[in-house]
Amino acid sequence: MTTTTPASGTVLPLAAATDHRIAGRKAAALARLAAAGFPVPPGVVVPAVVLEEAPGRQLTVPADVAADLLDAVRRWGDVPLAVRSSGVDEDGAAASYAGLFTSVLDVHSDGALLDAVCACWRSAFDARVTSYAGSQLRRLAVLVQPMVAARAAGVAFTADPVTGERGCVLIDAVVGLGDRLVSGAATPDRWTVRGDDVRQHSTDESAIDEPQARSIADLARRVEAELGGPQDIEWALVDDEVVLLQARPVTALPVEPVPVAVEVPPGYWTREASHAPLPYRPFTRAWADLISPPGFRMATELGLLLDGVAVQQIGGWDYLRIVPLGGKQPPRLPGWLVPVAFRLVPALRRRIRESVAAMRSDVPGQLVHRWSREWQPDFAARIRVLRERRLAALSDAALDGHLADVLTLAADGVDVHFRLHGALAMVLGEFAFTCRDLLGWDETRMFSLLCGTSTTSTRPARALADVAALAGPRVRALLAQGAPADEVLAADREFAAAVAAYLEEFGCRALTYELADPSLEERPDLVLGLVRDQLDSSFDPRADEELARQREAAENTARENLAVPELQRFERALQRALAAYPVREDNEFFTVSAPLGLLRRAALELGRRLAERGQIAAVEDVFFLRADEARAVLADGTDARHTVTRREGEHAWVLAHPGPASYGRDPGPPPPLRGLPDEARLANEAFLWTIERILGPNTRAGCPESILTGIAASSGRYTGPVRVIRSEAEFDRLRAGDVLVCPVTSPVWSVCSSPASARW
Fold this sequence. Notes:
The chain is of the alpha+beta class and 760 residues long. Helix 25 links the parallel strand 17 (739-741) and strand 18 (758-759). Helix 13 crosses helix 24 (678-695) and helix 15 packs across helix 19 (524-537). The chain is elongated.
């Protein structure tokens, strides 16, 4: 079957319509398949730019386009035409948009052809389309082809869309044109082809026979091989030839699980659910695998009685181990013998000397001050340079170099983050012990002396209040109605500019530790929801002033209850804690959230290039490649689609097989630290205090499972709707006045949880 049509000035022959950005994905896929020798009817394409340049919604075919289109179709003779929409973003690997756009069949006259083109264009503005995917789908081309004289027609899937089974072809067939199947006017014959096994499941139509089913299955499999993934094709039987009318990826296909080996290393390992509640995707491992080495460096630098903190994947899930000195768990000693071991075991003696030296020279305080003096300015400058790079304009080699720079930033960030958190554990642990010993205060009262000092974490909420102040009546009404972000931003130019500036300032930060999850700059809907909640709750950006008054009152209460010698110890610990506490959240943006946001930006640009070149099926598939693999694929042009498919299967298997809470024999609680010099005992007790609060048990002993226990993060009493937020992906469920209940938080949550009235 011939597949060429002479070119015209403003329309494209199908053979030249291989760029989906110009011809839409439907036409571009058929053009590629026609070039590969598949039986595709000829066609002509009205490019998407014609609709894009249409003034307003005055959808009239321009005179020059009409003339070229009519001239092109006359070359086929007096035949009925099929006029079909071809969206730039439809028929992708992530979503198909099937049935959203208009197709007009059996078109006979010039006027009817131009009307049909306009009908396709109008469908781009249909409410179903804009609610499904927003304004970008107004990028719509139109494909015109001669109708085929079909004896039978239908669809074929190269994977079962219900079970996800690969290796089988499901065929639906009806007599005549396929629109009888699409409209539901006919009940199709159903065939299943697995290898050489062909089975017919219904015979209402008797549209095709077994040899024809084999031919259709063969065509579908060849299309799958050409396009690199399970396909949904439309076909027609013309005389004895199977003709290809459309091919698109099967979307939302259940992933076929691929088993992953579960290899348990020696030692006692516990699930690391505080940072990795779900398995990381392969690209994210480029960051997650950086975590263990700094944990060992921190232990050495502070003289802790352990080798370090190790994180390792077991069966796809992250597990954590406190590695004892020497790497092996020592025998459990009776309490009276522990001080003897401290004096006699060489490794313990050496580490105790290091701990005493670190505390006497105030290594924790030096690290805290080094943050503001050296590290924070350096990270800020590097982040600014990397954030300002326009990735789309970079060559492949320059993009690879940029990704290498971001990975270096991330590695440096994780190293500084761990060193700081070790130091902060020492300082805040000492302050907690001071308040306990001198005042009898619990941790809630202790933290009342520090609340409101971390301005970095509250700055986004204060900036958002400035944005909310610009919301006029129209914007407020749209926000209250839950209107789409595009509609809200289009209603007020000044407000939209403020939102854009907010996202530019605060958006390049990860909301989770998983690079596959959208960052804040990709969630204008989330930001608008926060604006709505600030307006609903009368958010007061001056709340920091009230926190300062509460902090001053708590300080006065403490001082009134202390004698002079005790007061000196208290004041020293307080001043050190006031210097350290803001660093706890301040450093997280510079060392973790911003590097992860930059990594996601780079990964998406890399994925965009690989998807455009057909090396992966969709941009987001890049996260199923390791970072080194993705960089290699970009450089050598190899096809990574099968690797992505296997990794998707492995990820599905891991999700379906969550590991136990722990592996190995629990060594029990740490030994008593009496017998240690005061400095070494303080360092190690402070570290254990911190670990318990970060990774402690989720339930309290003796509490029935039906009783929810936890730590209050807000002072006072409050009654309101409880909103359980298990991860950052659920932020948009939070409403003004809610009591936020969550398993764990990170500093980035402060960007998104300002409307909550209480936190637990």
